[in-house]
Design brief:
With 202 residues, this protein is α/β, with parallel strands linked by helices. The strands form two sheets. Strands 4-3-5-6 form a four-stranded parallel β-sheet. The chain has a two-stranded antiparallel ribbon with strand order 1-2. The protein has eight helices and six strands; from the N terminus they run αααββαβαβαβαβα.
Length: 202
């Protein structure tokens, strides 16, 4: 392995790279850098190898576009999953969030973003064409739209519902409302309004 030129900037380079990570400010970058300096060489080597390994081995699943380490992701490869349902999410990390609930047992489709005219992202920049191709054989009976309940997420969900419904597939949207343990007094108007609109009989 080639060694970096010893120009006396190794620590600064580490701080700069750590500072580029999301959610890591200058103070956090410093804490991590000093932790690594005080750790033994083996610990630092394991971290470096884990980063390189994940970059080399993890890729996008060619079916659903979530992360995969084999030909397809674990969900697509699991024959016990309900193949009549597809949950559409924006990013691969959203798959993990839904999986943690333990209540959904269907398949996924990752769009790779959301429709955002401000950022010049339209349906053609997302994996919409691939989603429609997955619906062509008639095996899927329901598509669950699980994009975020913000402007871009709602725009994306509305667009998808419009193009999927003519295929004779049921389209549903995740309910959104008050969080469990929340306090009505502190709920914003949109959340509270949505909770009232999407009330159900008890």
């Amino acid at each position: 392995m080639d060694h970096a030129i010893n120009d006396g900037r190794a620590l600064q380079r580490l701080l700069d790279e750590l500072g580029r990570l999301p959610g890591i400010g200058p103070k956090s970058a410093q804490r991590i850098a000093y932790y690594l300096l005080e750790a033994d060489a083996e610990q630092a080597r394991r971290l470096a190898e884990a980063i390189l390994e994940v970059k080399q081995q993890v890729h996008f699943c060619p079916v659903c576009f979530s992360y995969a380490t084999r030909d397809t992701c674990d969900v697509c490869a699991d024959a016990s999953r309900d193949r009549t349902q597809i949950c559409v999410v924006s990013e691969p990390r959203d798959v993990s969030a839904v999986e943690r609930t333990g209540t959904y047992h269907g398949l996924y489709h990752v769009l790779g973003g959301v429709i955002s005219p401000m950022d010049k992202i339209g349906p053609d920049q997302l994996h919409v064409r691939e989603l429609l191709a997955r619906l062509a054989d008639g095996e899927v009976s329901e598509v669950i739209l699980a994009t975020n309940p913000d402007v871009e997420g709602e725009t994306t969900a509305t667009y998808l519902a419009r193009v999927i419904r003519p295929l004779g597939v049921r389209v549903s949207r995740l309910a959104s409302g008050l969080p469990v343990g929340g306090d009505l007094e502190y709920a914003d108007e949109v959340t509270l309004g949505r909770a009232i609109e999407e009330r159900r009989e008890v």
